[in-house]
Amino acid sequence: MTTIKVANEDELIKKLSLYIEKISNDAILNRGKFFIGLSGGSVVKYLCEGLPLVNTDWSKWSLAFCDERVVPEDSEDSTFGTYSRQLIPKTQLTKEQFVVIKQGVSAEEAANDYTQKLKELFKSDNFNFDLLLLGMGPDGHTCSLFPGHPLLNETSLKIAPITDSPKPPPSRITMTYPVVNNARNCIFAISGSGKADMIKRIIKDKEDLPAARVKPEGSLYWIVDDAAAIHL
Fold first, then answer.
1. Angstrom distance (rounded) from CA 199 to CA 203
2. Which helix (H) or strand (E) holds 189?
3. Is the confidence at residue 96, as pLDDT, over 90?
4. 196 near 227, Cβ under 8 Å?
5. Does residue 232 surpass a pLDDT of 90?
6. pLDDT digits (tens, 9 = 90+) for 38-81
7. What is the side-by-side order of every strand in the sheet holding 34-38?
8. Contacts of residue 179, Cβ cutoff 8 Å, sequence gap at least 6
């Protein structure tokens, strides 16, 4: 694990964008495609500001979601809907490059369908993302993997449904650790004093919280600004 400290949110966005540019271009050079998993929350803001500055072959990108809310795409809660409105117009990405959830079905059916779509994308049962951009909630959750939830121990499902999320909306799908920890790179990008205590509990105290269980086969980066890293 590599912890990278930066001064503020602007510097965090710049640093994150540099890593995305390098990892995407390495993947395209070595394997001809770049597979990235996105999160919602503050990650959306960072990417909407940072990605338009990235120098990459956008046509080689395939984008999926680390988790997604089972809501209509035009809902304020839809992560894809947010990226569709805020990010796509600023880059050369197209909607067709995003793996989106099936509309109008249960969380279970949405998770099964998403698993099938990823199998087609990777042409394999082995979902080996080049990069997962992960968020962390104030309770230490990441993706839709929440403290004390049975999904923390899920090993057979790669994309799992959750209908009792403690954070609304309750119905979601999420990557599980077998997928998260199979990634070539995982990056947490965290800013603000509101996350400082949780950052300390995970990075310094090594508490067994969901975000702390992210231990990929490849590289793990925590990019944190001074406010978030104040206790480190």
1. 6
2. strand 185-190
3. yes
4. yes
5. no
6. 999 899 999 999 999 999 999 999 999 999 999 999 999 999 99
7. 2-6, 219-225, 185-190, 131-134, 34-38, 61-65
8. 127, 129, 158, 159
Three-class SS of 127-183: CCCCEEEECCCCCCCECCECCCCHHHHCCCCCEEEECCCCCCCCCEEEECHHHHCCC
As a whole number, the mean pLDDT across the chain is 96
- d(CA 83, CA 55) in angstroms, rounded, equals 19
Q: Are 173 and 11 in contact (CB under 8 A)?
A: no
- The Cα 8–Cα 127 span in angstroms is 33
What is the mean pLDDT of the segment spanning 96-116? 97
Give the largest CA-CA distance in the chain: 45
Q: What are the φ and ψ backbone dihedral angles of 37, each rounded to 5 degrees?
A: -110, 130
Task: Tell me the Ramachandran region of residue 116: left when phi exceeds 0, alpha when psi lies from -120 to 50, beta otherwise.
Answer: alpha
Distance CA 145, CA 134 (A): 11
- In angstroms, rounded to a whole number, what is the distance separating the alpha carbons of residues 84 and 62? 14
Tokens at 119, concatenated:
């199998």
Amino acid at residue number 109: E
Looking up tokens 């057979």, which residue turns up?
156
Percent of the chain with pLDDT over 90: 99
Q: Supply the DSSP string of 17-45, one letter for each residue.
A: HHHHHHHHHHHHHHHS-EEEEE--THHHH
Q: Which of 173, 221, 183, 205 is nearest to 68 (CA)?
A: 173
